[in-house]
Write a structure and sequence with these properties.
The chain is mainly alpha-helical. Helices cover 77% and strands 0% of the residues. It folds into two domains: 71 residues; 65 residues.
Length: 137
Amino acid sequence: MCVELSARSMIGIVFYVLGLILLVYAGLNFNNLFFVQRLMAKSDIPVYSQMVFIPILAGLLVLLDGSFIANLKRTISGVLYVLGNFAWVYGFYLLYLRLSVPVEDISAYRIAFYLISVGVPVFIIGAIVNDVHKGSK
């Protein structure tokens, strides 16, 4: 029994696997830094930012992109997905920059919080629009 998959499905599966690998890598890095090396000082935040935060962000992005690529049904959901994806990725990038050099001023994190807070719901709305059943015309 041979199952043929479309190119879009294969790309989606590859993205799933890469995303999971990145998330496992981030988990292993966190385990090593926190439990083995016992890096728990404020000065260690940049190390966590580079070794844990970036792989988690990349893993989530690749995993979500893979699921979306494999299941894209409508153009409008693709537009919402791209806008939401851009907003939350840019928000996380700003957060990464703030964590690379530990910033204690709470207002420095405000724009990252807003971008992530807006980007994730737009991304989710795009997924919902993609999954809503098309009515017969």
